[in-house]
Amino acid sequence: MPSYVPVPKAELHLHIEGTLEPDLAFALAERNGVTLTHADALTLRNAYAFEDLQSFLTLYYELMSVLVTEDDFAALAEAYLKRAAEQGVRHAEIFFDPQAHTARGVSFGTVIRGLDRALARSEERHGISTRLIMSFLRDRPVSSALDTLAEAQPYLELITGVGLDSAEVGFPPELFTEVYARAAALGLRRVAHAGEEGGPEYVIGALDALGVERIDHGLRAFEDPALTARLVRDAVPLTLCPLSNVRLRTVGTLEEHPLPAMMAAGLKCTVNSDDPSYFGGYADDNYTAVRDALGLSSEDLRTLARNSFEAAFLEDDEQLRSRYLAEVAAHRF
Ligand code: HPA
Ligand code: ZN
Predict the structure, then answer these.
(1) Among the atoms of ligand 1, which is closest to the Cα of residue 244?
(2) Three-class DSSP category at 270
(3) Which of the ligands is closest to the CA of residue 137?
(4) CA pair distance 214, 226, nearest whole angstrom
(5) Among candidates 57, 47, 2, 26, which has minimal Cα distance to 248?
(6) How far apart are CA 95 and CA 38, in angstroms?
(7) Any idea which residues carry the catalytic annotation?
(8) Rounded distance from Cα 165 to ligand 1 centre (Å)
(9) Which atom from ligand 1 is nearest to the alpha carbon of 248?
């Protein structure tokens, strides 16, 4: 039996802080003299039973306290890239949450220099091209997002785009209109989480007020036929995260996930892992889970992989995009 080869894919919705595995968290805690409230890695993993987005975010932010030095951020990104390569990821557009670190006294420079150390050698070591997307925490003041954009100025060479994450409901996209206008003026690409827990109006706001080019999640856009028609017409990519949706109870079970219907409606869907350490699977684990639970065919998986490269921010290297697309076309399932 030939061994299983995952389809080549781009990962477009991945929070680097959400790749922090319990073992690494405890190793870094010890190295940095940080005390975690959970006794050990097993106890911690057992705490990964979430009610909703907020219950996850509370643990997600708490565990970040172990990330202190450049070395820590480099180790985090290196561990992700190694796992991602095993899962067929060939290109990764990686979110990071600077405010979650600067708010506890870790400098923007420490975070981005550490991440960049791993990313800069990723093509050579792991065969994965990378981009960084700086995400603003929407449940913090807009002034904090503007400060973060200012702190990013010396590092713009390393940053491809901006995103918007954290608690969605009650923090509509329109709040960040000025932040996104400034980011666009700096030449940054724009994405935003929308329609994860929030309704279709959050997706409309992200498109109209923020001018985003992709929607992160976008699951609930499908409740609105006119919005769905618009997303199909404009071929706006959605970065869906099926295992995340189940763990955060946005859908009841994976078998009930609307992905097949969304694909059939003509939406440009991609499948991603979001916070793989917390949600039970990396990129290809999500592909195989939807294949098994939803009966997706090999050609459906090929479409998802093709969409991921078509939706990637690879305009500065169309040759690379073409090479990846050729790999997808040639893949034998
Ligand atoms: N949603 C919103 N914010 C986040 C997520 C998510 O799934 N993961 C990390 N930050
Ligand atoms: Zn996310």
Answers:
(1) 7
(2) strand
(3) 1
(4) 18
(5) 57
(6) 26
(7) 196
(8) 5
(9) 7
| Distance of alpha carbon 331 from the chain centroid | 24
193 lines ligand 1 (CB under 6 A): yes
The whole-angstrom distance between residue 35's C-alpha and the CA centroid of its chain comes to 28
Residue 196 in contact with ligand 1 by CB distance below 6 A: yes
Angle at CA of residue 153, ends 148 and 155, nearest 5°: 105
pLDDT tens, residue by residue, 291-314: 999 999 999 999 999 999 999 999
Nearest ligand to the CA atom of 243: 1
pLDDT digits (tens, 9 = 90+) for 104-136: 999 999 999 999 999 999 999 999 999 999 999
Alpha carbon nearest to ligand 1 atom 4, residue: 166
The predicted structure's pLDDT at residue 110? 98
CA 217 to centroid of ligand 2, rounded, Å: 7
With a 6 Å cutoff on the Cβ, whether 165 touches ligand 1 is yes
> For residues 86 and 129, what is the distance between their CA atoms, to the nearest angstrom?
14
The pTM of this model reads 0.98
CA of 19 to the centre of ligand 2 (A): 12
CATH architecture of residue range(s) 9-328? Alpha-Beta Barrel (3.20)
pLDDT at residue 156, rounded to an integer: 98
Beta strands, E only, the chain: 9-15, 89-96, 129-137, 161-165, 189-194, 214-217, 237-240, 268-271
Q: Where are the domains of the chain?
A: 9-328
* Placement of tokens 């916070």 in the chain: 275
Confidence of residue 180 (pLDDT cuts 50, 70, 90): very high
In contact, 307 and 300? CB cutoff 8 Å: no
244 C-beta closer than 6 A to ligand 1: yes
Atom in ligand 1 nearest the alpha carbon of residue 275: 8
